Amino acid sequence: MDWNSFRLILAISRTGSLKGAAKTLGHDHSTIFRWLNTLEATFQVQLFERSAGTYRPTDAGERMLLAAERMEEEALALDRDITGRDARLSGNLRITCSESLAYRLLNDLLVEFRARHDGISIELLVDNRQLDLLRREADIAIRATRPAEGDLFGRRLADTAWALYASPAYLAGKPTPVAPGFAGHSFIGWDTAATAAAATWLTDMVPGAAIVYRSSSLINQMMAVKAGIGLALLPCYLGDPEADLVRVAGPEGALTRELWLITHRDLRNTARVRAFFDVVGRGLVARRDLLEGKG
Fold first, then answer.
1. What domain of life does the UniProt record list for this protein's source (predicted)?
2. In which region does residue 181 sit, left (phi positive, over 0), alpha (psi from -120 to 50) or beta (all else)?
């Protein structure tokens, strides 16, 4: 057996399908299907139970999965250890943050970062999911949550405040928005599967019939407010700078979150990671009033 066999087991187990494994490993579905069949034929054992298109490990598959996870962790630990010793201000940094932070704040800060450290290239993963820093899905994350895993290192930068926004054209001739219920007003909300605190707040505070438009994108929600569809709950750093939006309520204290810059402990002394913490971290702290809805 080689490492690719274990990677195959990991990918199928984590995605639950051959299609998901193919995407993870960068191959087509037929190749993954052929590899799995070859592996099972070699050991003369079934590694996955197939039911309604979902693949679940058998006992033999679970045994191989545990071994694969141990091997992966050792490989990742070695990678972090070697990378953590890197004193060069060059190479690649994989950064992850939310769509709204990338849109409003990060590009301006990256201009300064690149001016100071032009030997470092940036790969930005704009994703509202929390990518796994332990598995090196990213090197650095900018998150609105305190790091919980013991192997992560973080720097608290500021709080992030949320408020309700509308366009002046939408508000013309309408009653003043008053909580709870905000009677007489339409709302722009999240997609029905969203679990974000802002989505929960809207569900608790606003009748379902008042949410007339939904989107999984905060940028799209902001543009819908500009178009006059209704009110939307936005981070203050996103809504306040828009000249054609007005804040009509808030900030909502229950939605305030801490903003953190996070990396793995093994990487915190890598020169390019330290440089990013210095330039981008300092730049975000300098924008604290905007992030906290005070500016």
1. Bacteria
2. left
d(CA 33, CA 91): 36
134: which DSSP letter?
Answer: T
Secondary structure element (H or E) that encloses residue 212, with its range: strand 211-214
Please check whether residue 96 is in contact with residue 261, taking contact to mean a CB–CB distance below 8 angstroms. Answer: no
Contacts of 95 (CB under 8 A, 6+ apart): 106, 122, 123, 124, 125, 138, 139, 140, 141, 142, 276
CATH class of 162-255: alpha beta
Half-sphere exposure for 295 (CA within 13 Å, toward CB): 10
How far apart are the C-alpha atoms of 157 and 145, rounded to whole Å?
Answer: 11
SS3 291: helix
CA atoms within 13 A on the CB side of 9: 27
Tens-digit pLDDT profile for residues 202-225: 888 888 899 999 998 999 999 999
Residue 87 pLDDT greater than 60, yes or no: no
Length of the chain: 295
pTM of the model: 0.68
Q: What is the CATH number of domain 3-84?
A: 1.10.10.10
- Tell me how far apart the alpha carbons of residues 185 and 112 are, in angstroms, rounded to a whole number: 42
Mean pLDDT value of segment 278-286:
94
Phi, psi (deg, nearest 5) at residue 267: -100, -5
Assigned superfamily of 91-159+257-291: Periplasmic binding protein-like II (3.40.190.10)
Give alpha helix (H) positions in 117-248: 168-171, 197-205, 218-227, 236-239
| Contacts of residue 71, Cβ cutoff 8 Å, sequence gap at least 6 | 3, 6
Q: Residues of CATH 3.40.190.10 domain(s) within the chain?
A: 91-159+257-291, 162-255
